[in-house]
Specification:
GAF domain-containing protein, alpha+beta, Beta-Lactamase, 3 domains, 17 helices, Arc Repressor Mutant, subunit A, globular, GAF-like_dom_sf, single chain
């Protein structure tokens, strides 16, 4: 096949391919081997699904309902481009008896719209707003796989990992934040076998690019209001979006901006020195030099002194996670958590914030006992060795793969030089 992301090559018989895929799916679920003609992208997704503890007879769970769903959707960046999605895909979905769906970066469906009869059929498999369709929850599916791999993808028939989804075909493309490059979610078209066509994949990809272009046009309006956005979770060099610019900060400048955003009232030179440096012998002139360079990068009037403070309001991704945790919105906090705050930073105050966020979210996940949220954490780079989370996950979803991973972690812990 010329394009591995397309479900069917030109001229292929969809009925025969669906029959072949069902046999391949049964072989994989029984023996763990992937026969041809399963595409590599699908085979890899099936393996990820098994590692996450997904079973072929599972079903999607609904995470958000009623007011919680409404609040989460209203705050989500993709809410700003829903009119565009409806304009470009809405009529196509209704006329073709398909569905338009939009999910967040964790595969959680935010909007599902389209043909009424198709919606009723989709309701029976929980393909509804607020339901969790991440790979780690329901296995291979277009919106969940698109956000997992960061690429547009079609999923046809028995390429779906869960059997009850196999009568469907879908195509989805991720939508990225034009300022940070981070995946915000995906736009999806779901329906029958007729969607297993190159045009459907190209269509959703074009719609996703149009959404990114519109978000880029909308971004300067936000910055023009005097606010800035700081992205520092899961990355060592923070990104600051301000005044229509996107600034990639050095590691030291990332630490300074994170701390000043966390203390909008400002910090004295001595306070900032202690917050940044483990070595108490670092002279104040070293910090002043860093601040002078940062002032030049941020532009005139953006960094004040006595005390040192940012003169524009900053919304940081760390503050979003912390705010949602305080309000008990654990699912929303997990969705905003893109990894530890400045993970390589050794600045004492950054380390304290990082630990508070990570430990607080871990504790909330373990206490909440949601197997899908626990699986997301356990299979993320920062959670692959998290013994407490793996134990909580194994208690709720004791698959062979999860039990094996837990046993390996416990052996490491028991070894003389185990972590």
């Amino acid at each position: 096949m010329s394009d591995a992301w397309l479900a069917l090559e030109p001229g292929a018989d969809p009925v025969e391919r669906a029959r072949t895929l069902r046999r391949a799916h049964e072989t994989f679920t029984e023996a763990g081997t992937v026969p041809r003609p399963v595409r590599p992208v699908v085979a890899e997704s099936w393996r990820r699904s098994v590692r996450a503890g997904v079973g072929p007879d599972g079903t999607a769970s609904v995470d958000l309902m009623d007011g919680d769903l409404g609040t989460y959707r209203a705050e989500h960046p993709l809410a700003r481009v829903m009119p565009l999605f409806r304009e470009l895909l809405g009529t196509f979905a209704s006329d073709g008896e398909h569905l338009l769906a939009v999910c967040d970066a964790h595969g959680r469906l935010l909007w599902v719209e389209g043909h009424p009869a198709t919606r009723r059929r989709a309701d029976r498999m929980n393909f509804v707003p607020g339901a969790r369709w991440a790979e780690s929850a329901v296995g291979t599916n277009a919106p969940g796989t698109a956000v997992a791999v960061g690429r547009p993808v079609q999923v046809f028939s028995a390429e779906h990992f869960i059997r009850r989804v196999q009568p469907w075909t879908c195509a989805a493309a991720p939508v990225h934040d034009p300022r940070t490059g981070r995946v915000l979610g995906a736009v999806d078209i779901t329906g029958g076998d007729g969607l297993a066509h190159p045009h459907s994949l190209g269509f959703v990809q074009a719609v996703a690019r149009a959404a990114e272009s519109q978000l880029a046009l909308l971004a300067p309006e936000q910055a023009g209001g005097g606010a800035a956005e700081l992205t520092a979770m899961g990355r060592d060099e923070a990104l600051l979006a301000a005044d229509g610019r996107r600034i990639r900060l050095s590691r030291r400048h990332s630490e300074i901006v994170v701390l000043l955003a966390h203390h909008p009232e400002g910090l004295t030179g001595d306070e900032l020195l202690c917050a940044l440096y483990e070595d108490e012998t670092v002279p104040p002139v070293t910090l002043r030099a860093e601040l002078a360079r940062l002032r030049g990068i941020l532009g005139p009037g953006r960094l004040a002194s006595r005390p040192y403070r940012l003169t524009l309001p900053v919304e940081s991704d760390a503050a979003v996670v912390e705010r949602r945790l305080r309000s008990g919105a654990v699912t929303a906090a997990a969705a905003a958590y893109a990894g530890p705050l400045l993970p390589c930073s050794r600045a004492p105050a950054v380390d304290r914030i990082r630990r508070r966020l990570t430990d607080g979210l871990r504790a909330a996940l373990v206490a909440g006992r949601d197997p899908d949220l626990l699986a997301d954490w356990a299979h993320a780079p920062w959670g692959e060795d998290d013994l407490d989370v793996w134990r909580a996950l194994a208690a709720l979803r004791p698959t062979a793969a999860i039990r094996a991973r837990l046993a390996a972690l416990e052996r490491e812990l028991a070894a003389p030089h185990g972590r």
